[in-house]
Amino acid sequence: MEYFIVRQDPTITNPILPLKTDLDGDFVCSSVFAEVVEKEHAVYLDYLEKPRTIVSDQLKKLFVKFEDHLAFTAIVFTDVKKGTQRLYWLMDMVEKNCISQETTYYPDGRINELVINPKKVELDCIFQVDSQTEPFTIINLDVAESILRRPFLGLQLQRVKLERY
């Protein structure tokens, strides 16, 4: 099986971002409102990495088709001045301790090149790598192909190396 890292597209320079939220690591709630300010030509992306993993309603529907055990919390992006609201979802994924010893690191401890051990992934299609330095959302080839067949905006896929046996 092949795996891919899902990343927010850094080439989009004007994504919409929440201004005020309670999205800390211990956040638990059924829904939350996040104030945003829509600048001119602002873009609502389907995948946001910060402050936590947030996906559009359309991307959530796709993910649920592959993994029914993913947990989501509704978040409504609200622009008070324009009177607009959009539904997004905070993702809570299974964390897998699947980082291979073949992974390379920068001197400051950040991961340079992620290599995962496919034996530790089991059968999960969508998961997060249990990393102390940065979060990595990983999807398998089936999910990646399904994403590429649809007009999602603001995400990139990067192939992940697998540990050699």
Task: Explain how this protein is built.
This protein has 165 residues and is mostly beta strands. It has one domain (3-162). Helices cover 11% and strands 36% of the residues. The protein has helices at residues 57-66, 141-148; strands at residues 3-8, 31-35, 47-48, 54-56, 71-79, 84-92, 95-96, 104-105, 111-113, 115-116, 126-129, 136-140, 155-159, 161-162. The strands form 4 sheets. It has a 5-stranded mixed β-sheet. It has a 5-stranded mixed β-sheet with strand order 2-5-6-4-3. The chain has a two-stranded antiparallel sheet with strand order 8-9. The protein is globular, with a radius of gyration of 16 Å. The two termini are 14 Å apart. Residues 25-30 have low confidence and may be disordered.
Q: Which descriptors apply to this entry?
A:
165 residues, mainly beta, 5-stranded mixed β-sheet, 2 helices
Q: Please tell me what the overall shape is.
A: globular
Q: Identify low-pLDDT runs.
A: 25-30
Beta-strand percent range: 35-45%
Put simply, the count of helices is 2
Distance between the termini: 14 Å
The helix-strand sequence is EEEEHEEEEEEEEHEE
Q: Radius of gyration over alpha carbons?
A: 16 Å
Q: How much helix is in the residues?
A: 10-25%
Structural class: mainly beta
Overall mean confidence score, pLDDT:
86
Largest sheet data: 5 strands, mixed
Number of strands: 14
Query: What's the domain count?
Result: 1
Please give the order of strands in the largest beta sheet. Answer: 7-11-12-1-13
